[in-house]
Automatic annotation (TrEMBL):
GO terms for molecular function: flavin adenine dinucleotide binding; oxidoreductase activity, acting on the CH-CH group of donors. It comes from Streptomyces prasinopilosus. It holds the Pfam family Acyl-CoA_dh_2. Residues 238-367 form the Acyl-CoA dehydrogenase C-terminal domain. Gene3D superfamilies: Acyl-CoA dehydrogenase/oxidase, N-terminal domain, Butyryl-CoA Dehydrogenase, subunit A, domain 2, Butyryl-CoA Dehydrogenase, subunit A, domain 3. Keywords: Oxidoreductase. This is Acyl-CoA dehydrogenase.
Amino acid sequence: MHEVHERILARAEEIAAEAAPSDELGRLTDEAAEVLRSSGVIRMLQPAEFGGHEASPVDFFRTLRDIGVHSSSAGWVAGVVGVHAFEVAQMDIALQKEIWGEDPDTWIASPYAPLGRATPVEGGFRFSGRWPFSSGTDHCRWIILGGLIVDEDGRPVPGGLRHFVLPRQDYEIVQDSWDVVGLRGTGSKDIVIEDKFVPGHRILDPAPMEDGGLAHQVGRGDSPLYRMPFHPMFTAGITTATVAMAQGALAAFTASMRSRVTARGVKTASDPHQLAVLGRAISDLEAGEVQLFDDIERMWERAQRDERFPPEERLRVRRNQVRIARRAVDAVDELFLHAGGSALRSDSTLQRCWRDIHAAMNHASNNADPIYQAYGLNTYGHPLPASVLF
């Protein structure tokens, strides 16, 4: 077990204690963020030369799982923000020094949706846009944003998708923009940028990261970590967080049902219907975890052999991820339906997990049909739609 994972397990009660306060606050509490920061989980995929652990993805995602069981929002933020170090490690070394040179614990937010517009100028681009859903952004000092390069008439140029990295002073966080029913503690607020200059060394074409090939081009090829494929890595964080929420719901359900007695004096823990629900949920969740971590381990082994990740392999992983998430939310729904009226109370951990996992299913990474369709198209040798990222 990785040392960061051990530190997280040792502070599980602290993580759990901040789940409800983070939900009420609308972002991770400073105390919750401090646990993540001091444990080193956000540095697990960061290069060792910049104070990171450069850990295996297997260790990283297993650590995420044990954060998210105790706090959906903390697990979500750790997964999203933690993967950004994996990407920045493959960007210009000057940018890495700007971000981590003075403080290795500097966090980087996103999102990647290409909602920005970038106009070429000497030395870089003028960049503007508005992006929703920047998870954990209040605790971050840099941000990666998706955008499209446009021509002089404002029309996107072919192949112009880029990731743009900006420091905190160059963007605004819209503080009242995160009013939601689930994953409230992630603080996934809107970001606004108005005509800021982004120099060339802070910009990345993400396409070469898709099959793990960028690492060799940028001098990171000696590390198998950076030979991992980008999209399955990012989406694994979403899937792991989703599975962890379901495990948190399961723990809350069993704790409640263990001592519950119905109005007729029947112990719920002895009720055959409740027992059947419990058995089905545990089976589905265990199957999902086995599949999730088996895929991560297989990708890791492939990266260690320095092999690229062809479309069929990446699609297989994504196919499994979206199915794992669906099994997880279905299990939570069944648990919630059989938990009784007490599960509706605002102080119920189960209802918070239920809200959170349904919010998680609205993330693009958990949108299953496009992935299933792309997998089928690839199976039959048809062209794949450019809109599906994998």
